[in-house]
Amino acid sequence: MTDGDREGTLLQRLWATWRMQYVTSLGSPDDACVFCELPKQAEDGPANLIVHRGETCYVVLNLYPYNNGHAMVIPYRHVASLGALTDPERCEMMQLAALLEDALKQKVRAQGFNLGMNLGRVGGAGIPGHLHLHMVPRWSGDTNFMPVVGQTKVLPEALPDTYEKVREAMRDALERREAGR
User: 10 lies in a domain?
Assistant: First the structure.
């Protein structure tokens, strides 16, 4: 590595050209909300990453995951705050989060989870107008030298493969719940 590669910083440049599609899709505030548009697609699959549809909320894999299996529970209705959710939406959001937790424990052997919401642009929301709950599966040792030293996250599985696993796991978890576990 030459001095010119670092340009006066401690970080090495990593080209992630696939992110340009996301960055340029952010556009103006008049753009359609991706979380409102996704469930309008008739068929679920690797193209829209929806792994489960409930009555008031749906579960979708994150297109730009922190870890394999990183998913979100999203209300169909375009709301920006927890207080704007109806009681059925709030209840189903937590029920689907519990179902997703069970699915990820079973299928990808997740040992822990990070759950969170970023509300509002200042709160870190990439899509501030449409509330969504992130669930990131974690494993012992999933943080290694790459993100710490290399500022790079390595995902060991392709998103379409993760989609198939999580979709199947959601079906299995729903069957277990309906059967009384």
Answer: no
From 52, 70, 132, 134, the catalytic residue = 132
Answer yes or no: is 7 within a domain.
no
Q: For residues 118 and 116, give the distance between their C-alpha atoms in angstroms, rounded to a whole number.
A: 7
Structurally, how many domains does the chain consist of?
A: 1
pLDDT at 154 over 70: no
Q: Is 52 a catalytic residue?
A: no
Over residues 7-27, the pLDDT tens digits come to: 555 555 555 665 666 555 555
Whole-number Å distance between alpha carbons of 33 and 80: 12
- pTM of the prediction? 0.76
Distance, CA of 121 to CA of 131 (rounded, Å): 11
Q: Is residue 22 part of a domain?
A: no
- Does residue 155 fall inside a structural domain? yes
CATH number at 119 reads 3.30.428.10
Report whether 49 contacts 89 (CB < 8 A). no
pLDDT value at residue 12: 54
Band (pLDDT 50/70/90 cuts) for residue 49 is: very high
Tell me the residue range of the domain where 97 lies. Answer: 31-178
Average pLDDT over residues 132-155: 71
